[in-house]
Model the fold of this input.
Amino acid sequence: MNRDVYVIGVGMHRFSKDRIAKGDLYFTAAREALSDAGIKFRDVGSLYNGYIGGGMTEGLGFAKDLGLTGVPITHVENASATGSSAFREAVWAVSGGQTDVAMAVGYDDMRQMGSPLSSNQGGKKKLPSMENMLLPAGFFAMWAQRRMHENGTTVETFAKVAAKNWNHARHNPMAQRRADHEVTIEEVLASDMVAYPHTAMMACASGAGAASAIVATEAWAKKYANGRPMIKVLASQSQSEHYGDGHIFMGAIVGPSYSTEITGRLAFEEAGLGPKDVDFVHVHDAFPIEELMYYELLGFCGPGEGDRMLADGDTALGGKVPFSPDGGLIARGHPGGPTGLAQVWDTTRQLRGEQGKFQVEGARTGLVHMMGAGSICIVHLLQRA
Amino acid sequence: MANMVPLEDGYMIIPENPELPCKLIGSYSKTANKTYFPIRKLCPVTSEPVETVELSPVGELYSWSFIMMPKMGSREKVPGYGVGQIDLPEGVRIQAPIDGKMGDWKIGMKMRLAPNPVVTDEDGTQYCSFKFVPA
Done:
C-alpha cells in the first residue's frame, strides 16, 4: 500500500431474521460508524455501498439520509464478498491518496433477494438458466462429503464447528443467533437435514443486517484515536480462482479453493507475517466444511490436520487461534452485503479489547477472510498499532 | 414420446432417437491438452482457441449430497433430491442432480448422463437440463 491505512470507526445494525427496512439498516450502521470514529459525514471523502439484493444504485438514496455532501459514491457487488470488497475499495482509496477518509457500508436482507429463476435466452420464454440448477448448499455439502471420503472427517466434526460458533455468538449483541444455553454437538446433529451431511444448525443464518467501517490516514487516526488503540490495515489482498484439475465452470466454485491459499499467502507476504503471528481469524464459514478447510488453506495447520486442530480446541475462544469469535456466518449471520464488514466490526473491536464476554484475550493481530460466489477471495490483516 | 429439447443451446445434445445417449458439449484445447465444460470461448489456461467436442456420457461419481431444499427456480417443498459431481474420462468434472435416494450412491460408482425435464410447454415440449443416473 502506498500510504498506511487505519480503521477509525465501525458500526453495525444487529443481524436479524426480522423484516427491517433497508434504509433503517443502512442508517443505523453508518451513523454508528461515524459516531465510533468521532467524525461527521462531511469528513468522508469517498463512500462505497455494498449490497447484493437491491436495485440500481439503491444505496445512493439511503446515503442521502446521512447528508448530500457531494461525496463520490460507488456501488459494489461481489456476492458474499461484497462488504469485504467495499472495505477493500475504501482502503485503497485512502492508500492511493484519493482521499484521507473513506467509508464502506454494507447492508442486505438475504430473504428479499430475487428468485434464482433466470434466463440466458434473450427473446425466448423465461426459463431457468442451465447455469443455476444447483443450490450453494449442495456445493458445500459435496465438498464436505468428499472430505469425509478422503480424510475420514465425521459429521460430529462438522457439528463441533457449528456448536463452537453458536456458542461464540451467545454474548455478541449483533448476532442473529444467540442461544440461551450452551449449544451441544447433539443438538446441532438433531436439527433438520439441509444437505447431507449439513444440518440446519450448521447452515449460516440468512437474514437482514448492516455493517460499516471507516478508514483513514495515520494523521486522521491519531487525531481521532480518543485514547483508544489505533487499528492498522497491514494487508489487503484479493484473488479470483485459479484453474486447477477438477475446476467446475458451472455455478459457484467450491473446493479446492486455490484462491484462499494464494490470497492468504499474499496477505502474509504483504504484512511480513505468518499464521503464527495471528491471534484470531474470521472466515467465510457458511457451512462447517469451509471453516475446517480454511484452517489448512490459510496455513494454520497442515493438510488433513484441521480435524485435530478443532478437536484440541485450538480454534475456540480461549484456544490458540480462535476462528469466528463473534459466531461467524453460522451464528452471527450472513445477510450478504454487510457480512464482510461485520467481520471488520468484530476484528476492530477485538483489537481494541472491546468485545467483553467474547473477547480474544490479548488480541493484537486479526485475519479477515471472505469468499464471494466461491471464486473471489479477499483477505485483510489488521493489527493493533 | 414427449419432445425433449435442451433448456439452452450449446450445453447438450438430445438425440431424437431416445435409444441414443444424450451428450454434453465441451471445448478441447490443443495447447493445454485439456477439455472443459461448458463451452469456453478461449482456453482458460493458454487463452488460445478451442474446438467444440462431444463429451463421454458415462463418468465416475466424485462426490454427492442429498438436498432437502427446493431446486433452483422453485420454491415448492420437495421430499429431497440427490446432487453429484461426476468426473468424465476427458478430465472434466460435472455438477448435476443425480437420480436415487440416500444409500444409493457410493463415490467411484459409474454414472450415466440423462436429460432432466425442468419445464413443460403448452404443446408438450419438455425443456431439459441434464442429470446423471447410476449406470
User: Anything to note?
Assistant: The mean pLDDT of chain B is 92.
